[in-house]
Amino acid sequence: MKLLQNIPGFLVQKTRSAGLFLNNLTKKLVLGENNSQNWPNRYQWRHFFKILSRNEQRFLGFFILVIFLSSLVPLRSFYLNHTEIGPTNGGAYAEAIIGAPRYLNPVLAPANDADRDLSAIIYSSLLERDSHGNLILDTATDYPIAGPDQKTYEVSLKENIKWHDGETLTADDVIFTVRLIQNPDYNSPLRISLSGVEIEKINDYTIRFTLKNPYGPFLDNLTFGILPQHIWGKIPPASFPLAEQNLKPIGSGPYKFKDIQKDSAGKIKKIELVAFSDYFSGRPFINALSFSFYKDEATALAAFNNGEVDGINLISASNTGNLKADFNLNKFILPRYFAVFFNQDINKALADKNVRQALSLAINKTELIEKIINNQGTEINSPLPYFVFSKDDPGASYSEPAQDFDIEKAKNILESNGWSSTENGTTSLPVRQKAVKTGKEQETLTLEISLVTVDWPELVATANYLKSSWENIGVKTDIIIKQPTEAQELIRARQYQALLFGQILGADPDPFAFWHSSQTKDPGLNLALYANSDADKLLETIRRETDPQKKIAEFDQFNKLVTQDLPAIFLYSPIYLYPTSPRIKGIELNNSNSPSARFVGIEKWYTKTKRHWK
């Protein structure tokens, strides 16, 4: 301030030294006529630089610049201390999906991986599983709590939920969806999960579910996608699978349908979605999503390496070395496993438990996991493996039964039970045969197996490994590779001798559909056609059990029964591998209950950032 107060005097001094170079008008403008004024007016400032020499002007300019730059340091420090880098709206994400969609409809979607993936993004549900496998709220306002009888559950809905066409989601939509799933005319794969469940409307945003019997894992069944009644209510069952809305969906999820592209043959090549600005959990950061569909992993991998897409829905462990583009390999554990399920009704040799035991002993699972999936998996020896329980659950102490690998023991079991090795005139491999009585006739059985699996690299490689292992003990093995749709037809009809296939148990496992004797026919999933009355009783008890400690003990008893009876050989649980571009941020994966659960929280993914005030 003292410096500024001396400016008028400084101007006077400079004016005197300027002499002839400053005329009277300039003097008046710079000095002013009112000597009582302590602060120069704007006219004086305007002519100030005219009385400075060039060096003085440079010095003053440098001095002002230093002051300005010095002031930026605390300003920058203040800005950085009071802001943080965070996601912002913008960008796009493109993913390659192996397979093709048929129905973007949550009632039909569970039959197809591509449908499940897109339905998880387009539709919302009452509850969902987060990236750690925990049950969290979606459209529900709080967690349904069972009534005193353990058979009634009330659910309240959030009141700010909009469908993509602007209509409001209410209890009527939930009731409509449940009853549609329960109607056998619609052929929903979810029908068994809601069978016998009654639903009633309390008010526009509250509903009540009533079960026939207590069912511990019931809340997991409330993760179905909700359909809009005003769109689907007038479509009859016969027209349901063919309705245009199956490929131009209206949902209430974070992204809404924009466009669909087909090739000249009518096959779907690409589906585009855009962020739903009225999404009840907040507008997604990424503006647009696109999903391109590929016939196999090789073509999807090429698209990723060429930069055509930012991610692949799944890659086999053997192919991770072929990822050439810069990538993040997201990994998460699914409650699933792969096993060989035996159909003892079709192959009489497999009805001999000794044969099944020998086949199991012939498999080196440690080597199988190392060679086929590059150690990206866990050995499985029972129908309810330990990893289906969370770390905070009493099931964390649950132990997996051990499985032996012993080639010589396998051979001895076969020999001691009449399966003698004989030379085969057509191949270099010996075959095993056994004479058995069928009524009054004597019949010679040849020990050979037809193994069916799906055309997926890891499963095909696993099938070839099993073939080699079994032929080492004299069991001739033929491999039949089927496309997923063809395999589904064989499974529905139970037309296989041995089936190499996977099962997803769910985060809160209910093995009833997989192992109860009532589920041996379609739509049941008892692929081994297993029937044991003691096991049935345990499965029925497990369904009603709500005490975690008791359920663990019942799981343990059930596992012992199945591993003793050996209706299947349990192999491994692969880690789910999901490659994405490093520019896609915010992906959080750990444990999920299905592949489509990778999209839980997709509204928080982002590609763009900016500084936000704290």
What report would you give on this structure?
By secondary structure, the protein is of the alpha+beta class. It folds into 3 domains: 2-81, no CATH class; 92-331 and 578-613, Periplasmic binding protein-like II (D-Maltodextrin-Binding Protein, domain 2); 336-574, Dipeptide-binding Protein, Domain 3 (Dipeptide-binding Protein, domain 3), CATH 3.10.105.10. Helix content is 29%, strand content 21%. The strands form 7 sheets. A 6-stranded mixed β-sheet has the order 14-21-13-20-18-19. Strands 8-9-10-2-11 form a 5-stranded mixed β-sheet, sandwiched between helices. Strands 5-7-6 form a 3-stranded antiparallel β-sheet, with helices on one face. The model is unreliable at 15-23 and 390-397 (pLDDT under 50).
Task: Give the SSE layout.
Blueprint lengths: L1 H4 L1 H12 L5 H8 L10 H5 L7 H28 L1 E6 L3 E7 L14 H10 L4 E3 L5 E3 L14 E5 L14 H12 L15 E6 L2 E5 L18 H4 L22 E8 L5 E8 L12 E7 L2 H9 L5 E2 L15 E5 L3 E7 L10 H9 L3 H9 L3 E3 L27 H10 L3 E3 L8 E8 L2 E6 L1 E7 L2 H15 L4 E7 L1 H10 L4 E7 L7 H4 L17 H12 L3 H18 L2 E7 L1 E5 L27 E6 L1
Parallel strand pairs: 2-10, 2-11, 18-19, 18-20
Antiparallel strand pairs: 1-23, 3-4, 5-7, 6-7, 8-9, 9-10, 12-22, 13-20, 13-21, 14-21, 15-16, 16-17
Helix pairs in contact: 10-12, 16-17
Organism: Candidatus Portnoybacteria bacterium CG11_big_fil_rev_8_21_14_0_20_44_10
Pfam family, one: SBP_bac_5
Protein name: Solute-binding protein family 5 domain-containing protein
